[in-house]
Amino acid sequence: MSTDYNYPLDTEHWNTEEIIDVVNFYHLVEKANESGVKREDLMHAYSRFKQIVPSKSEEKTLGSEFEKQSGYSLYKTIKQARNTSEGEVVKL
């Protein structure tokens, strides 16, 4: 998969590890929308994302920018994952 857009990142406040973890989360959201991912993998990545981005307003801002760039909704993807049984694949 190749992206023709830039992920929304806070390079001024996040360290390299945090940037890698957020990029991984965005990648899993894309994959969930394109081919499916394991629920546990997505929820683990989201949990890490929330450690880096604890603010709901910042999460919404990043989610909105990500959706503008990619066409995929962080909110809808995580909502679907929450409604998916443990051990199942999340596919939108």
TrEMBL record:
Pfam families cross-referenced by the UniProt entry: UPF0223
InterPro entries listed in its UniProt record: BH2638-like_sf (IPR023324), UPF0223 (IPR007920)
NCBIfam families: PRK04387.1
Protein name: UPF0223 family protein
Organism, as annotated: Pontibacillus chungwhensis
